[in-house]
Amino acid sequence: MADNAKRYGFRWATSNSHPCPKPVAIPVANLQAFTPDAATAAKLQPGDPVKILNGGGLDHADEGGTVPTSNVYGIMVALGHDGKVFNNSFSSNGVLHPSSFIPSGVNYGTNLENQTIALVVPATGVFWEIDSDATLADLAAWQALVGLNADHSYDAPAGSDLDANPRLATATAGTASAQWRIERVSPTSLNQDFSGANVKLIVSINETQESPYTVVGPV
Fold it and tell me: For 152-191, how does the pLDDT look when each residue is reduced to its tens digit (9 = 90+)?
């Protein structure tokens, strides 16, 4: 058994539009602590599933979906400064610096000109690729999960490693209320060994997705 190459978080796979749908700019609340699954404060970075908080702002979408504020809104794909200066964020002391992530506890005070912005693609209507957090025997075992719902899991950040590391929680497959629907095994060439770790799956959000248009037949 050999582990497959690991990739971070949720990645756009395909959707009704091409390329990846345009992200929505969402401000980060001042001094917001990013706490995946109520764990130690972590980074917020591309690939992380996020929820919208009451009153605005966002945070990691917790495991499960038992309350509305834990439901996945979308996937963070980039960060910016209200569309003006991309790939920048503010540290806890309010200093603007280039970054590939948003640190927990961003402090811009009441100066909204310095507000840190996360760019988020809404999860609905999109197929996402995600690594699994478990191992199974073979390809047939993975294909047996297709059509089931599952939640995502996080690693508890510790020490200098503040990555939330979202993955698909394979053990939750079959939970009707889980947030992701397993669509298929990813066709990526990175799936080299189906008995190894980090097998990649294609998922969609577990929501009914209706057409925005009504087709009227002959009258």
Answer: 998 877 777 788 999 999 999 998 889 999 999 999 999 9
Closest CA to 154 of 15, 76, 47, 68: 47
pTM of the model: 0.84
Reported as half-sphere exposure (CB side, CA atoms, 13 A), residue 188 has a value of 23
Residue labelled with tokens 């400064």: 81
String of DSSP letters for 68-101: GGGS--EEEEEEESTTSS-SEEE-TTS-EEE-SS
Closest alpha carbon to 8 in 158, 200, 157: 200
Alpha-carbon gap, residue 58 to 67, rounded angstroms: 15
Nearest Cα neighbor of 105 from 45, 27, 30 is: 30
